[in-house]
Amino acid sequence: MDSKMAVSSAFIWRRVHSLMGFWLIIYLFEHLIVNSQAALWIGSDGSGFVHLVNSLESLPFLQVIETVLIGIPLAIHMVWGVHRIFQAKSNAGKTDGTTPSLGQYSRNRAYTWQRLTSWILLVGIIAHVVQMRFVHYPKKMHVEGQEKWVSQIRFDEGLVTLAPRLGVEIENLSEVNPPRAGNVVDAVSPTIGTAFLLVVRDAFKSPVQSILYSIFVLAAAFHALNGFWTFLITWGVILSYRSQRAMIPVSVIGMGLLSFLGLAAIWGSYWINLRH
């Protein structure tokens, strides 16, 4: 092939990175819509969340689907993203005068924040996957021929009234010798969706964990929709200055929607909808 016609590997990887990012934005919306169902419909006891999780978990070859459609795109985007982070140089802050400081321009500030949120997401995603997919993933068991799901959660008084409504049995829960608040108990749920609902509720009982997840969600919302704006430029959808300016409010609205869904799941699942 003529050297003038050759396409550099960096060019190809930038396009692949961009495509994987766009796909992950679609997944992020789906993920937060599902999680928000634990909180948005106050009084429903998270029935929307339970139904959606049960539907997703019943898909055939789920692990293969998750690996191909989520794991691989995420790995590609993260690896190339880390590579770009180490190459990137911020020009939005103060400098020693040898390089320009362009912090007065919004797009330069957005470029800097895109790189900063990358680090937050790198740590947050790893911690989230370890917590929800390994440490606190419900365990399947069979009781009297029926499939049950066991999750380990911290006891609180609200579980006394919530558990019967969800059809959940809390082991060692009795009026004579009830567990103390904070003690870890086994919750036996009729479906995996109910078990995950209790795991989510338990995670966001902690104000510290809720604050950390809030930072995670806000970083993801900015990174995703700012990345969507650059994705449209990368693929030639918006090339004129006018079209680029017109797309900024759309991206901001998307950031607000993602933030709302994520924060609703964090602060609404326990503190508003499922506390008692």
A few lines on this structure:
The protein is an alpha+beta fold and 276 residues long. Helices cover 64% and strands 8% of the residues.
Explain this structure.
- The chain is an alpha+beta fold and 276 residues long.
- The protein has a domain of 188 residues: 3 helical TM bundles of succinate and fumarate reductases, CATH 1.20.1300.10.
- Strands 1-2-4-3 form a four-stranded antiparallel β-sheet, covered by helices on one side.
> Any low-confidence stretches, pLDDT <50, length ≥5?
none
Distance between the termini: 69 Å
- Provide the CATH architecture of the domain at 9-88 and 105-144 and 206-273: Up-down Bundle
Q: N-to-C SSE series?
A: HHHHEEHEEHHH
Helix-strand category: alpha+beta
Assembly context of the chains? single chain
Strand content: 5-15%
Global mean pLDDT: 91
Q: According to CATH, what is the class of the domain at 9-88 and 105-144 and 206-273?
A: Mainly Alpha
Which radius of gyration do the C-alpha atoms yield?
Answer: 22 Å
Provide the descriptors you would attach to this structure in a database record.
276 residues, single chain, alpha+beta, 8 helices, 3 helical TM bundles of succinate and fumarate reductases, four-stranded antiparallel β-sheet, 4 strands
Structural topology:
Blueprint: H1 9-36, H2 47-57, H3 62-87, H4 106-135, E1 139-143, E2 146-154, H5 158-166, E3 169-170, E4 184-189, H6 192-203, H7 207-234, H8 241-273
Antiparallel strand pairs: 1-2, 2-4, 3-4
Helix pairs in contact: 1-3, 1-7, 1-8, 2-6, 3-4, 4-7, 7-8
